[in-house]
């Protein structure tokens, strides 16, 4: 672990995350995946928007961008088009990715551009005061929903698949090893890949929903999820109410940068 710290992290400790926050676990899962794949740090770019999770690139020793709220994917798209040989990883929170950045999310998926998006889903706007997000569960409490959130939450995996993402996976901070393995697979996938990382926010979400202790949030993840493989062996009644984790969707489709390069070649007088 000490070698990973020296190689992949900038010396900026202590970090800004609250005690018990799961964002460090997710960030470590990403770093371990990068190390496992042996990616070139000089050809790996990490981009984020605004939010608790979006502070992660500031601690990571790569070319990194900390961009505008909800706009990480447009910046990442520009990087990938300019540097198609680079691995581009986007770190975003549930609000950053699916509220103000929701339009960018669905169109990045539709284009199937070779970018890996890791969504740190803590079910809340943690940095700005604990407001509910598009991924806050139905009737969960937030500062802007003190009697419970009446909105239905997006199913992020289904949203990504429906919009055209060709790799969709989900895991949790309780299942940290599985999470890192899924991130590695997502990075290797050619096309738009989405990994939902369910993480706990004991301060802004936990305190309002009777899970103020970090261990309680981890126990909730353990008790309310089921792997795709385990679910396949059970009947629908036994799986009801459980959240599926693992590789949820994968397909092959034309990749945006590759297709765009063909258009440029044609416009420059090449093959028609």
Automatic annotation (TrEMBL):
<keyword id="KW-0560">Oxidoreductase</keyword>
<dbReference type="InterPro" id="IPR011766">
    <property type="entry name" value="TPP_enzyme_TPP-bd"/>
</dbReference>
<dbReference type="Pfam" id="PF02775">
    <property type="entry name" value="TPP_enzyme_C"/>
</dbReference>
<feature type="domain" description="Thiamine pyrophosphate enzyme TPP-binding">
    <location>
        <begin position="50"/>
        <end position="196"/>
    </location>
</feature>
<protein>
    <recommendedName>
        <fullName>Thiamine pyrophosphate enzyme TPP-binding domain-containing protein</fullName>
    </recommendedName>
</protein>
<dbReference type="InterPro" id="IPR051457">
    <property type="entry name" value="2-oxoacid:Fd_oxidoreductase"/>
</dbReference>
<dbReference type="InterPro" id="IPR029061">
    <property type="entry name" value="THDP-binding"/>
</dbReference>
């Amino acid at each position: 672990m000490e070698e990973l710290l020296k190689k992949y992290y900038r010396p900026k400790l202590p970090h800004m995350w609250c005690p018990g926050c799961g964002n460090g676990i997710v960030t470590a899962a990403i770093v371990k995946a990068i190390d496992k794949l042996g990616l070139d740090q000089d050809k790996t770019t990490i981009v984020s928007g605004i939010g608790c999770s979006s502070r992660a690139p500031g601690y990571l020793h790569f070319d990194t961008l900390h961009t505008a709220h909800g706009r990480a994917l447009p910046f990442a798209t520009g990087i990938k088009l300019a540097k198609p040989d680079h691995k581009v990883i986007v770190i975003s929170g549930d609000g950053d990715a699916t509220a103000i950045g929701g339009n960018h999310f669905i169109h990045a998926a539709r284009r199937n551009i070779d970018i890996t998006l890791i969504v740190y889903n803590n079910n809340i706007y943690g940095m700005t005061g604990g407001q509910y997000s598009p991924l806050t569960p139905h009737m969960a409490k937030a500062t802007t929903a003190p009697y419970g959130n009446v909105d239905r939450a997006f199913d992020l995996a289904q949203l990504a698949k429906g919009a055209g993402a060709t790799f969709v996976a989900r895991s949790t901070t309780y299942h940290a090893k599985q999470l890192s393995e899924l991130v590695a697979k997502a990075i290797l996938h050619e096309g738009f890949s989405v990994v939902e990382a369910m993480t706990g926010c004991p301060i802004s979400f936990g305190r309002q929903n009777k899970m103020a202790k970090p261990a309680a949030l981890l126990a909730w993840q353990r008790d309310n999820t089921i792997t795709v493989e385990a679910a396949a062996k059970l009947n629908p009644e036994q799986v009801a109410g459980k959240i599926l984790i693992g590789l949820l969707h994968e397909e092959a489709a034309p990749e945006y940068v590759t297709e765009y390069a063909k258009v440029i070649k044609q416009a420059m007088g090449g093959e028609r």
